[in-house]
Design brief:
Layout: H1 22-38, E1 44-46, H2 52-58, H3 62-75, E2 78-81, E3 85-88, H4 100-113, E4 118-121, E5 124-127, H5 128-131, E6 138-140, E7 146-148, H6 181-190, H7 197-212, H8 219-230, H9 238-243, H10 267-276
Amino acid sequence: MSTWIRLECKTMLVGWTSRLPGEQYAAWVKLLQAVKMVGERGGLIAKNCLDPSQLKVWHISRHAFDRMINAAKEEGAIEEIGKTHFLITSWNHYQIDSTAAERKAEERERKSQGVTVTLESHGCHADIRDIQDKERMSTFSPGGQAAETEKEPPPPAAEGSTKRRKAPRNATSAQPREPDPIWDGVCAAFHLSPVTKSERSRVGAIVSDLKAKGASPEDIPVRLAHYKSEWPNAADTPEALLKHWDRFAKAPTVPADPLWPHEPPTAAQVAEEAHLLGFP
């Protein structure tokens, strides 16, 4: 098997790779080289072949590699096959030009072997039938593209039948969240509407710590008001309030005005003072 790959110079000037910083572009080239060394055909590579030790050999940081992978996914240049492998979707584009006889021989070999792609290099061995995600069944086409397996719709229920049709396995329904007064109190006090996984994780961490401190839903707006009164110019975030939770159990003490150390005089005292000074 040839170990050459085709890398056109124009990719540095046009296309999505032209927008990659230097280290990320180098990571893309290194990935193509690794796929060529690991996979015989199809552009498939196991993720465990791209561990930190391998990136260290390439002199590529994990941050740059992950940014490159995310950019490639957005452009459709990379797909994830199951949870353990990456697929270069246009892998044929990076192969060297072959003769007509070689192309026909490769086509006959693919037909004889089916659509199975095997990895045997650097201790990596996998069959694409074994690495497909159980929740996302797909087929691997000879062109190197992963396609969703089409399922025939269930037959219609007979007339007069009262048997309920079972929902498909992959059908998901939104489960209502169990009531949590602390969660609701945090969202109401800080005007939060957590939807994404990271947003819900953030609120969940705050709620967990508040519960550990024995907080009640009524404490949250009260201590937040104390926080704003003490530090009106500070950022009023859930994390900041949690950090100073114990400090604001009570309202902050307002220091006395040194220019007016006593209570203001009453109207009777003002009238008596004016009479002594000769005012009517």
